[in-house]
Amino acid sequence: MDRSPRGQYLTTVRANVPLCREHFRLTLLVEDFPVSEPGQFIQIACVGPDDNGPVDHVIEWSPGERPILEGAELSAAMTMLRRPFSLAGRRETIAGTELDIIGRDVGLGTRWMSQLAPGDVVNIIGPLGNAFELPPKDGIALMVGGGVGIPPMIYLAEKLAQFGRKGVAFCGATTLDLLSLTINDASMSLRSSDVATTPQLNVVEFAAHGIPAIITTDDGSYGAKGYVTGALEQYLDASLPDGTGRAGAVIYTCGPELMMKRVAQIALSRSIACQICVERAMACGMGTCQSCCIKVKKDDPQLPPLAGKDWCYRLACTDGPVFAAEKLLW
Ligand SMILES: Cc1cc2nc3c(=O)[nH]c(=O)nc-3n(C[C@H](O)[C@H](O)[C@H](O)COP(=O)(O)OP(=O)(O)OC[C@H]3O[C@@H](n4cnc5c(N)ncnc54)[C@H](O)[C@@H]3O)c2cc1C
Ligand code: FES
Fold first, then answer.
1. Distances (CA, A) of 162 to 76, 115, 155, 205, 239
2. CA–CA dist 39, 205 (Å, integer)
3. What is the best residue among 106, 178, 280 to mutate for testing ligand 1's pocket, by most ligand atoms within 8 Å of CB?
4. Which of 65, 25, 44 is nearest to 150 (CA)?
5. Per residue in 87-112, pLDDT tens?
6. Quick one: which ligand is closest to 40's CA?
7. 72 C-alpha vs ligand 1 centroid, how far in Å?
8. Using an 8 Å Cβ cutoff, are 251 and 272 in contact?
9. Which residues of the chain are under the pLDDT cut of 70?
């Protein structure tokens, strides 16, 4: 894709809705946000613009002297670094662009985000990273999201509908209470033996784009019991057993690395194209700090970097976060 320009924006919270025990959907309003695509992410400063935090915190320092770090920056728990979040959706409104983020409260920054209220101001940088490529015209997108890997799939579903592409979503959670989606059971028409292989229009976020979904929970508290990768395999073997159907299929995945590795194996062993959105821990999100490197295969071992080797490191934040499955050396 052509990289859209990125920038720093002050946004206003439009809504912040709890989705389950630990997840929330935050909607931010921003004027004139650049073009963005599914797979891209933003970096959020998890501190208010008027707080004494990373956005405006100044450390006294003179050239040749050591900085004096005795204040809150060392003694208090602070979110000095921005936190990365995948775009989960985007709408154009008269007031500006609305961006959806689905977060899970796991620490200081996400706790701060979960407590934001309409009208609060949030500083973001974006859109960052590369994006998913849509399947061919007659193909089908098989979207496999686990936990906080589900949000970019919702944005992808939006794009698939816009370009008239077919899709099926496979969403995994450890338990129903940690599933960050809205379920409409009235639209279910399944016997329990069918739940792993028959996609249903019962997940509001995907059904809104005409995309059916299969839900799995590790403990069986909703949908098919087991891992989402098991449901993907069962679906592929039942619905796309071989040949023509698989040729236009593309598997998209985001979530825990173990899950994505298994998805990659499933795809590669069946010769299905697979795009993986990695969520490596990131500091800057813009290619400066080198904290997010990931090992990949090189097309030509003779070319730099690391001439003579058939692998090199790439940055998840700028070369990714989306990589072709066959390129990744996990
Ligand atoms: C490109 C990208 C997209 C992401 N999209 C989403 C999203 O849509 N929704 C969402 O909820 N989260 C997403 N994440 C993860 C999110 O950035 C982290 O959960 C967040 O930074 C935690 O911040 P915190 O201050 O709340 O927690 P911290 O106090 O910083 O950390 C809490 C715990 O989470 C762990 N942690 C932090 N970052 C990660 C990570 N990247 N992977 C695994 N463990 C981590 C820490 O090691 C620690 O154990 C994404 C990450 C990346 C790199
Ligand atoms: S997060 Fe800094 S280089 Fe990728």
1. 46, 33, 11, 15, 24
2. 17
3. 106
4. 25
5. 999 999 999 999 999 999 999 999 99
6. 1
7. 23
8. yes
9. 1-4, 50-58, 69-76, 186-196, 243-245
Looking up tokens 């279910």 gives 188
Two structure tokens written together for 64: 């040749």
pLDDT of residue 269: 93
- Rounded CA separation 94/325 (Å): 39
What the block records as the tokens of 278 is 């990695």
Please state, for a pLDDT cut of 70, what percent of the chain lies above it: 89
Q: Dump the DSSP string for 185-235.
A: GGG----GGGTTTS-BS-BHHHHTTT--EEEEETTSSSSEES-HHHHHHHH
pLDDT of residue 54: 47
Q: What is the CATH number of domain 140-264?
A: 3.40.50.80
Mutate to test the pocket of ligand 1, among 24, 79, 83, 280 (most ligand atoms within 8 A of CB): 83
Global confidence as pTM: 0.91
* CA 128 / ligand 2 centre spacing (Å): 11
DSSP string covering 45-114: E-S-TTSSSTTT------TTS-----SHHHHS----S-EEEE--EEEEETTEEEEEEEEE--SHHHHHHH
CATH 2.40.30.10 fits 7-128, yes or no: yes
- Tell me, what's the pLDDT at 194? 64
Residue 147: other Cβ atoms inside 10 A: 22
pLDDT tens sequence across 116-162? 999 999 999 999 999 999 999 999 999 999 999 999 999 999 999 99
pLDDT reported for residue 155: 98
Residue ranges of the domains in the chain? 7-128, 140-264, 280-330
Say how far residue 182 (Cα) sits from the centre of its chain. Answer: 18
Report CA torsion sign: 146, 140, 155, 196: negative
Nearest CA to ligand 1 atom 1: 279
